[in-house]
C-alpha cells in the first residue's frame, strides 16, 4: 500500500518539536475503518500534550478528531460504508495525519454529506464538549442564566448557541472588543470584556443579584474565586479548562458560605467514553448544525504541515472559534 504523512512528538516542548514522518498505510481490521482526512480539529488539549503539561507516552501523535472519507471499511462494520464522509473522535492521539485507521464505533457518517469538511472538523471535539456541558451536567433551560468564560473560543461559541437554543440567558467573557462583537453574533446576549468590565458585577446586573445556574469555567486560576461569586444558591461551577493554571484546592467552607455550591471538573473523554454516548452527542450536534440552530465558526485554518503555527496562535490567544488543519 501507499505511504502517508503524520505529525509526531518525540520530545515535549515548544511547537517546533512536532515532526513530520511517513508511514506505510495498512488495511483496517475487523471493526475498523480507514479515513483519508479532509480536515482535522485542533484543540487546546493538543498544545498541553505537545508542551508536556499533560503527561503522554512518547513518542505520541496529536489530535483526537477528524473528518474525511472512509476509503476502506473492515469486516463487521455496518453503519459506515466505503465512500461515506465521516467524522470521528478517538481518544488515542493521532489525527494530525493525512489518513488514519480508527474503530468504527468512534465514527459516524455525516448526516449532511455535503457539509464542508472544515466546519465538520471544527464542530466535533468542541461541539461534543458543548453537548455534554449543556445537556448532561444538570438540567438547564428557559428562565436560567449561565456564565460562559472564554466565550469566543471554539467551545464557547458552540456552547453559547446551544444554551440559547435551550432558552438560557448567556453571559460570556472575552478579552477584546473584537471578540465581544463575534460572541454577540453567536448566541451570547451579554458580552463582558475582562479588561474593561467586572464580570461578577455584570452577572449580578443581568440576574438581579441571584446569580447564574451554571458557571462554565474555562480560564482557571485567574478567574476561579470570582467565578464562585457568580453562581446562585445551589449553583454549579464546571471547571472544564484552565489555561491560566489549575485553580488548586477548593475550600469546602467557601462552597458552603457562597450558597451550598456544587463543583465539578468534567471532561469530554468521560462523557463520551461509551460509543453510544459519542454517537448520541454527535447526532445531536450535527442535527442542530443541519437545522441552523448552531453555526460553526472556523476562525483559523492551517496546512497540516504547519501545525506548529496553529499551536502558537492558540496559546497566544490569537484564534477565534474553531481551529482546523487541512492535509
Q: CATH H-level name of the largest domain... which superfamily?
A: Medium-chain alcohol dehydrogenases, catalytic domain
- Mean pLDDT, rounded to whole units? 95
Ends apart, CA distance between termini:
19 Å
- Which regions are unreliable across 5 or more consecutive residues at pLDDT < 50? none
**CATH fold name of the largest domain:** Quinone Oxidoreductase, Chain A, domain 1
Query: How many β-strand stretches?
Result: 15
Name the CATH class of the largest domain.
Answer: Alpha Beta
**How do the SSEs run, as a string of H and E?**
EEEHEEEEHEHEHEHEHEHEHHEHE
The CATH level-2 architecture of the largest domain is identified as: Alpha-Beta Complex
Describe it:
- This protein has 327 residues and is of the alpha/beta class.
- Helices cover 30% and strands 28% of the residues.
- Helix 2 packs across helix 3 (154-165) and helix 2 (117-135) packs across helix 9.
- The longest helix has 19 residues, at 117-135.
- The protein is globular.
- The model has no long low-confidence stretch (mean pLDDT 95).
Q: Keyphrases for this structure?
A:
327 residues, 2 domains, 30% helix, Quinone Oxidoreductase, Chain A, domain 1, alpha/beta, 10 helices, 6-stranded parallel beta sheet, 7-stranded mixed beta sheet, Rossmann fold, single chain
Please outline the helices and strands.
Elements: E1 3-9, E2 18-24, E3 32-42, H1 44-51, E4 65-73, E5 85-89, E6 99-103, E7 107-109, H2 117-135, E8 145-148, H3 154-165, E9 169-174, H4 177-185, E10 190-193, H5 199-207, E11 212-217, H6 224-228, E12 231-239, H7 252-257, E13 262-264, H8 268-271, H9 275-291, E14 298-303, H10 307-315, E15 322-326
Parallel strand pairs: 8-9, 8-11, 9-10, 11-12, 12-13, 14-15
Antiparallel strand pairs: 1-2, 3-4, 3-6, 3-15, 4-5, 5-7
Amino acid at each position: 500500500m501507499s505511504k502517508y504523512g503524520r505529525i509526531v512528538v518525540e520530545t515535549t516542548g515548544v511547537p517546533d518539536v512536532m515532526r513530520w514522518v511517513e508511514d506505510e498505510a495498512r488495511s483496517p481490521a475487523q471493526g475498523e475503518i480507514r479515513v483519508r482526512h479532509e480536515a482535522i480539529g485542533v484543540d487546546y488539549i493538543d498544545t498541553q500534550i505537545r508542551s508536556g503539561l499533560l503527561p503522554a507516552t512518547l513518542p505520541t501523535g496529536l489530535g483526537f478528531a477528524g473528518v474525511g472519507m472512509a476509503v476502506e471499511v473492515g469486516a463487521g462494520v455496518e453503519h459506515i460504508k466505503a465512500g461515506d464522509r465521516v467524522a470521528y473522535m478517538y481518544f488515542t492521539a493521532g489525527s494530525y495525519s493525512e489518513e488514519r485507521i480508527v474503530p468504527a464505533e468512534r465514527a459516524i457518517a455525516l448526516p449532511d454529506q455535503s457539509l464542508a469538511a472544515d466546519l465538520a472538523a471544527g464542530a466535533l471535539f468542541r461541539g461534543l464538549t458543548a453537548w455534554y456541558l449543556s445537556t448532561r451536567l444538570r438540567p438547564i433551560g428557559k428562565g436560567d442564566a449561565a456564565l460562559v468564560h472564554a466565550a469566543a473560543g471554539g467551545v464557547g461559541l458552540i456552547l453559547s448557541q446551544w444554551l440559547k437554543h435551550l432558552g438560557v440567558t448567556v453571559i460570556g467573557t472575552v478579552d477584546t472588543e473584537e471578540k465581544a462583537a463575534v460572541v454577540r453574533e453567536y448566541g451570547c446576549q451579554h458580552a463582558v470584556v475582562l479588561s474593561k468590565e467586572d464580570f461578577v458585577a455584570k452577572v449580578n446586573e443581568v440576574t438581579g443579584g441571584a446569580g447564574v445556574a451554571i458557571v462554565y469555567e474555562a480560564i482557571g486560576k485567574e478567574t476561579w474565586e470570582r467565578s464562585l461569586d457568580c453562581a446562585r444558591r445551589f449553583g454549579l461551577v464546571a471547571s472544564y479548562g484552565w489555561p491560566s493554571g489549575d485553580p488548586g484546592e477548593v475550600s469546602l467552607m467557601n462552597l458552603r458560605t457562597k450558597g451550598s455550591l456544587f463543583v465539578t471538573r468534567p471532561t469530554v473523554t468521560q462523557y463520551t467514553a461509551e460509543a453510544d454516548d459519542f454517537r448520541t452527542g454527535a447526532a445531536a450536534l450535527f442535527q442542530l448544525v443541519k437545522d441552523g440552530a448552531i453555526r460553526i465558526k472556523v476562525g483559523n485554518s492551517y496546512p497540516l504541515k504547519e501545525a506548529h503555527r496553529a499551536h502558537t496562535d492558540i496559546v497566544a490567544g490569537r484564534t477565534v472559534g474553531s481551529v482546523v488543519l487541512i492535509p
